[in-house]
Write a structure and sequence with these properties.
This protein has helices spanning about 10-25, 30-50, 50-55, 55-70, 80-90, 100-105, 115-140, 145-155, 160-175, 180-185, 190-220. The chain is mostly helical. It starts with 8 loop residues before the first helix and ends in a 7-residue tail after the last helix. It holds the Pfam family GLTP.
Length: about 230
């Protein structure tokens, strides 16, 4: 496998640290770091199996949308919340690339996908990650496939169609062993305790971002965006 396709937990932690530091200074989150985190994290799924990676391929697409919107409004704002506020003022928050003509009643921005909708879906993905990794740590004899399935059913399935839920089932059945997950997450020849410690460190770095996003969406009544 190309080195660029390998999961790098230290790089992941660096991106999360940068995002959290940006928030402390600006009360907002940087689009680039959040987008890059998603891209880098999905390399874990890629190494764990094609079906698992395919199940989360839309996360890569959403990462690009986050970075694109950040670049598009870079001169007006440096943060994700700032972009969402601009979209709100322009009536763009509900755009998904398919409903644009119906909402805008014209041919402008026909392919625009909003930051607001995208981040809402990423928050749900963050919920999935937290549930999954906490279950890995708490239930140390539980099969990883069952952990993936249970986390999906709680965090993501309620928002997916019947077809998507069925496709996800195939991915969970093909999920690898806990040993394979640990080897990918922290590297070979590491103890299980080292893996559990790394997982806790990851969850602790992601959790403030997840909570702050949820707080922003709840405060601004954005949790029901279509």
């Amino acid at each position: 496998m190309d080195q660029n396709d390998r999961y790098d937990n230290e790089k992941i932690l660096k991106l999360l640290t940068e995002a959290n530091q940006f928030f402390e200074q600006n009360r907002d989150y940087p689009p680039h770091q959040i987008g890059e985190f998603l891209v880098e994290f999905c390399k874990l799924f890629k190494q764990l199996g094609k079906l698992l990676y395919f199940a989360f391929s839309d996360v890569i697409e959403k990462a690009q949308i986050i970075k694109d919107r950040g670049n598009e409004y870079n001169e007006q704002t440096k943060g994700i919340y700032g972009v969402i506020q601009i979209e709100k003022s322009k009536g763009l928050m509900e755009l998904n690339g398919e409903n644009n003509k119906e909402i805008l009643k014209n041919k402008t921005l026909v392919n625009y996908q909003s930051m607001a909708r995208t981040i809402l879906r990423i928050i749900r993905f963050f919920n999935y990650l937290k549930i999954m990794f906490l279950d890995v740590d708490t239930n140390r004899n539980k099969k990883f496939s069952d952990i993936c399935s249970d986390a999906y059913n709680e965090a993501l399935a309620p928002y997916h169609t019947f077809m998507v839920r069925n496709a996800a089932k195939a991915a969970w059945l093909a999920a690898p062993s806990r040993t394979k997950v640990f080897e990918t997450f922290v590297g070979p020849n590491q103890t299980d305790e080292a893996a559990y410690a790394a997982i806790k460190k990851f969850v602790n770095a992601l959790e403030p971002i997840r909570l702050n996003f949820w707080d922003y969406y709840n405060t601004n009544k954005l949790t029901n965006l279509p």
